[in-house]
Design brief:
The complex is a heterodimer of chains A (336) and B (230). With 336 residues, chain A is an alpha+beta fold. Chain A is built from 6 helices and 20 strands. In chain A, helix 1 (34-43) packs parallel to helix 6 (303-335). Chain B has 230 residues and is an alpha+beta fold. Chain B has 4 helices and 13 strands. The chains are: A alpha+beta (336), B alpha+beta (230). Chain A: It comes from Komagataeibacter xylinus.
């Protein structure tokens, strides 16, 4: 069990999301950076759908009331276990009573505290993810507060002290990545692309869009020169998924994300590909993003390095854990 | 039949449906032409057929459109598009019997504060707006936006009122609302741009129930006045 000692707004329990209920108006929710959560779950030998704590605001402090093995992924930050620095993306074991403190990120925006065995909250409509708008899932459908306790079915693992290379260090960055303050994302033109003026189409790809403070798990509002339609359109409500880039009448785009509504009505100019959504999840308010046009085939191919990264990690973790156990076994055998 | 997946189809003039990819794992099918219940029933038929496809993870029926979300990017999107067009052209309309809900409304008052705006827009008296509103039978076309929220078709055009330019910040769940040509009952308490004309105690979503949403597409709704406060 863990107890939250200090938290600020909008830190929640999330898993990989709640697919299957969009036809009832229930969005998927789930971790914004599903890649970071998957890395955490692989490192800890968890089920892929085990839940974690998603951090969006810092500092965050918790106490382990029972021994637990954990990993913090998604961000680079000052992380301390009873004052001792521990590294992100690494597996650590805490003793009962130890306090974990996570400071503001030096890189990235959303941190994931993954525990061996996952966070144990009731499964609602097939997921442990917090649905903030609907006020269900996660811990009573709400953000975490100081004093909350969360259970886990897991126990401390017998192996720790290994980790993963962060995705940002492994996965190809795109051409034009000179400026660290600009996040490059690939996007496919969407349904209403051709309804925009040629100038607007050009500007979509050329503008370094600034992420405004009106950005959250629902979506990111971008700021830049407005994108104009050739003529006004009235669209009928249609399905929305994470990554879709809509343009409200004022002309500044919104990228819909994990907590997006299931349907919308604004013109759709593009869709950020699935392989790059984690980059957006780690982009901070005030940063700029550049969209790069890509085809369906390129969008599909872009998942290959992501999947290969996770597969390699799975193999390495399994190998490391079995060899460490093996060595431990031999030692105790030698003693006997 | 043009089944090219182009994201540049002029929707209102094309006779053929428009099909486009939304990212690599979602495909949007849009029926051609204006809204008709016939087209909506054909979309429901398409939804039923698409449900049986093993590659489909989720379906989002919209207003005369359908989004397919695949478990993995389709190997040949073109083949799926052709299948959709074929199904669209050959399937009969799906008439859903649906449940009939009779819902009592407390019209006007603080929870229906936009009644005045609807009167101003329509040039009708509050009594007229109210009797026109409960004089129609509505059909649940699609569910979405918020958990359990039903887009209701069947609003009398005389009381159709555009969405507000400044949304209400904290509209109560259960508010009976009008947004353009559509009617509804708000599902969640929060910001809402539709016009409130009354209130019902009915809750349209409960995650602990099976099914969690009170309404399903094809259900019919009749409102009756429980009280009127002007």
């Amino acid at each position: 069990m863990i107890t939250i000692l200090e938290t600020s707004a909008l830190n929640t329990v999330q898993d990989l999301g709640r697919p299957g209920y969009r036809n009832l108006g229930v969005g998927t929710s789930g971790a914004m950076d599903t890649l970071a959560l998957q890395v955490g779950n692989i490192l800890l030998g968890n089920q892929m759908d085990d839940a974690c704590i998603e951090l969006q605001t810092y500092p965050f402090v918790l106490r382990f009331d029972t021994p637990a093995t954990f990993a913090v992924t998604g961000i680079d930050a000052l992380i301390e276990l009873d004052g001792r620095t521990v590294l992100p993306w690494m597996v650590e074991t805490a003793a009962a009573g130890q306090v974990l403190r996570i400071g503001p990120p030096k890189a990235g925006a959303r941190g994931y505290i993954c525990l061996a065995g996952g966070i144990e909250v009731p499964v609602v409509l097939g997921s442990r993810s917090t649905q903030l708008r609907g006020s269900f899932g996660g811990l009573d459908g709400r953000p975490l507060e100081a004093g909350d306790t969360l259970g886990t079915t897991g126990t401390a693992l017998d192996v720790a002290g290994y980790g993963a290379l962060p995705p940002a260090a492994v996965l190809d960055t795109m051409a034009g990545d000179k400026d660290a303050k600009v996040i490059n994302l690939r996007a496919m033109p969407a349904t209403d692309y051709a309804l925009f003026t040629p100038e607007a189409q050009k500007r979509l790809w050329e503008t370094p869009w600034r992420i405004t403070p009106q950005s959250n798990r629902v979506g990111y509002r971008l700021s830049g020169a407005p994108l104009e339609l050739r003529h006004r359109v009235e669209l009928r409500s249609y399905g929305v998924i994470a990554g879709i880039v809509q343009v409200p009448p004022a002309g500044e785009p919104i990228v819909q994300l994990a907590d997006a509504n299931t349907v919308g009505g604004y013109p759709r100019i593009a869709t950020v590909i699935e392989a790059d959504l984690w980059r957006l999840a780690q982009a901070r308010i005030g940063m700029r993003i550049r969209l790069h046009e890509c085809s369906f085939a390129e969008g599909v191919a872009a998942m290959q390095p992501v999947n290969a990264y996770l597969d390699d990690l799975r193999t390495l973790v399994a190998r490391y854990r079995s060899s460490t156990r093996c060595r431990a076994g031999m030692k105790s055998g030698a003693k006997a | 039949m043009n089944t090219d997946i182009k994201n540049d189809v002029a929707r209102d003039t094309a006779a053929a449906p428009a099909i486009s990819m939304i990212g690599t794992r979602a495909m949007l099918f849009e029926a051609p032409g204006d809204f008709t219940m016939t087209h909506q029933r054909r979309v429901w038929a398409l939804m039923d057929a698409a449900q049986a496809r093993p590659d489909v993870l989720e379906l989002i029926p919209g207003v005369t459109n359908l989004m397919l979300i695949f478990s993995a990017p389709p190997e040949r999107p073109q083949a799926v598009a052709e299948w959709l067009c074929h199904a669209w052209n050959t399937l009969p309309e799906r008439h859903i019997e649906g449940h009939l809900f009779e819902i009592g409304v407390r019209y006007g008052g603080a929870l229906g504060e936009d009644l005045e705006a609807v009167c101003a827009h329509s040039g009708l008296s509050a009594q007229e707006v109210i009797s026109i509103h409960h004089g129609s039978e509505y059909t649940v076309c699609a569910i979405g936006s918020a958990p359990g929220f039903g887009y209701l078709h069947g609003l009398d055009p005389r009381i159709a009122t555009p969405r507000k330019t400044v949304p209400s910040l904290n509209m109560q769940a259960g508010t009976v609302i009008i947004g353009g040509m559509q009617a509804g009952i708000s599902a969640l308490t929060g910001p809402n741009g539709w016009n409130s004309i009354g209130f019902t105690d009915l809750r349209v979503f409960d995650p602990a129930k099976q099914p969690p949403a009170l309404f399903a597409v094809g259900d019919r709704i009749r409102f009756y006045p429980e009280s009127i406060e002007l």
